[in-house]
Amino acid sequence: MLTGRESLVRLIGRRRRSPLPASLAAVLSPSSPLPSASAAQADDGGGSGEAAGGKAGPSSGGNGGAGVGAEWVACPVCGESIRGSDYCVNTHLDICLTRGTKRKLTQSTLLNFRFSKKVSAEPTTKNLINEVETESVKQIDEDLSRDQASFSLDSDTGSSKADSAISSPGYLNGSGSLSTSKTISTHVPSDTVLPNVKDAVSNVLVEDCSPGMLPTLASSCSIDACTDLDSSNIIAVDTVIVGRRFHENIELREDEGITLLRDPQNAKDSDAIKVLYAASECEEMLGYLPRELAKVLAPLMDKQYVECEGCVVGLPEQQLGNVPIQITIQRCKADNKRNDDQKYCQSLWEKFISIVKSANFQQPSSARYQTNFNLMIADVMANHTHVFSDVEKSFLASFKSLSDDGQRLFVRIYTRKGPWFRKSTISYREISDLEHAVMELKLAGYIDMLSCTVDPPEYDMEEAIDLLTVPEMKEILKKLPKDNTSCTRRHELANTLLSLYHNGTCATLPKQILKWTGTCIRISKMADELLWRIQRLFFLNGDQDLSSFLLVEFGVVKFPDYACSISHRIFQERIDLLEYEEAIRVAQVMDESLDNNNMDLVTRCIDLSENRLCTMTKQENTTSPEHPPLFFSRFSASWVYSKILTLGVSVYERDRRYEDAIRILKMLLSKITCDRRRGYWTLRLSVDLEHMGRPNESLSIAEGGAIDPWVRAGSKFALQRRVLRLSKPPRRWKVPSYADYVKRNIKEVNIEGRPLNCEIGTKNLFYGYDGELCGVEQLALQYYADEGGGWQGTHAEGGIWMTIFGLLMWDVMFSDIQDVFQSKFQTAPLDLETDYFYKSRKDLAESQLKKVQDGMAEEMLISSWELHQGTSCQGVNWDRHSLTDLRAVVACTGGHRLALLLRHLAVDYRSWSSGMPDLLLWRFLDERGGGEAKLVEVKGPRDQLSEQQRAWILVLMDFGFDVEVCKVSTVAKWR
Asked: Which Pfam families match (predicted)?
């Protein structure tokens, strides 16, 4: 893989489905000259490309009438505002006339009516809400808004922190409009919990969620959740059974009795309440009560303050659906209870009554993704509202006004690959009215629709053909004048149809294709652009998406506990975000072009990135309080363009275009002065200059890089070695001061092995000492265990050291530092790979390192393992390394050497997090626990040490470690 390709792919993350903005597509066109300034310049009223301003619509064409800038008219039936396209008007009239709630108009009245245009050409939030308002639209949940507004949790106590909250003038209030007084924090209330039972759909046991995680919040509906029989003594609650456990041998019937049983020993939830089937002989378990209900009912049952019974009130519509039940909770007489217990139980009862009256415990568990989606939008709109235009805010605010069916359908198709979906194949049990949901989303501008009534050339017919099945393609080809059914494979049939479409030989082909596919829908361009931005701002990377919520809810992933103390915004101005988004688009185009081997477009991306970076201001190392932290630079357009150009250098070097590579490298070094990649850029520049026959300039570049403070680790070592090689008399007479250090001897051990293969470019396989096939590392482990002195060990490279670093420095990594935690889905602070990490935590880090040096590392390791086991943390691998092995490593390494190594990583984690020796070996010398450790770099035939590996070995030797290189050679016969 080209150097920098993998890093660019991680930066891009989820590829955007919408086409390039017209401005960017024009710039990347081969016939267009590159502009001299960034095309991302836009005023605050605009949007990002197609999602920028009032003139940009969410629809990519067609008469769907979903464009934000369309004219608005008043409906003659209900008087509400709707977009003035024929499609929207006709659809809205159909809905109004079928409602029967307004005055009825005759057909002649409708035909003679002149739609009155609204004065405002720009839609308001009220317009967007009124447009999709139908009789089936439910009331918007005000409790959800309150939960989102109080989305704050202290990492220790669960109390909200005023200093970590961010005031937002554009936070959405419960009515869907924009409020100027709401404040939101990026934490979770301590009383917010997740269902701790098996999900009724996936049958997966949901693990408890610690306060550090970001759970979903239970939303309430406007319907009553309980029937108040006698609120002072007895109450009936309508709910469902979740975590279905019963099998086909249990025949459920309506009105059959159920009983409840506490399950305090449940490993996932101490408040769990089982639901038992009273009709069976041994009271078979049916499942659990919902977590939200069990949390308030369990304390009352534990105090024996209530008696519970119930019955099945309905059967699930589908096999694994939730079972509706009604339970009756009756308060017991308090004859033998102390006064204190009586008061406490009374307060629990009052809290229980209050919650069950306001909550809805019949909400299907499969709708959690809907709540997560709303939560994500609300959080971003509160914390990053300044980067959205008014039009974009109105558009996003309208999502809350959609019905549950509309919201769920949108989230479902947004998280699928797409881009197009046949409506006939869409079926979700939690969506009761698919037709209405589709029309609602279409009217609100969240989806595009493709059918026989839409002009097909406005859309990509290749995507429409891709929706056809193989039999459908064959049927279409059979009906054409010329029989083209000789091909049978899917891609051949699709290419044949596409060729016929482009040739224009069959004018009716598009209609025939759409007749077979039926109505198709996809996410609209504006919705895709804005939701991509929402997701990027919420997770701060391109790797995570809505599935992260589910991983937390199902207990698969647990994020650390930390406080989000925010004083600086990542994007200071809207233009900063727009430039960053455009740079990501260019990176995506380059990545796709490399996949397609379109080198012309690759070159255009490199040239555009070079041009953009040249016009940007030089990066300065500013650390004043007014300026944002330097580690925010990864969210800048210049950072993205520098990554594109780093990959571009590899492309040019592969094609031996050294002059182009030299030009880009010199520009990178001149524009970006504070970056760890300067070492790689300087090294490549020196090498390419030598390729061009310019040794004097190559030597000067290497000498300058060797003393550059931002050139470190392997890159610095490589430049020093180049200086020694190139600075021969008469070019240089003075010997550099670091010559002796670089030329130090490294201990080597040679072993022999019987190879299975000796092919160049393939992984070496050997017959091990036990006769089994193994790699060179496993062969070396067997050698050290048998002939090398009885060493135990593991092939972990740097993984085991990164795990030890994470466990011993856990409190340092997740300490309360300004701006390093901006999302509740982080596994490390944003500054971990920068100099700021150690500088801002120096006292705390040195305190931990002092304990390690004093011999407390093993005790600290055990404590950290027990407290945080299973929690995601960058560098920590819970599955690969056992606590026993980690304790042995820590004990045998010694406190002094271990403290030096951990400090080295803390000061410069990024430069030294790779390249460590392959094997970590240890052995105990006596029964009292005394031991020693050894690090070994294993090299097979034809392998050489990299510069990073040489640098690590020399550093480890300085720290007092026993380090050596084990070279494996081949023999003709096994002796």
From this structure: FAN1_HTH, FAN1_TPR, HIRAN, VRR_NUC
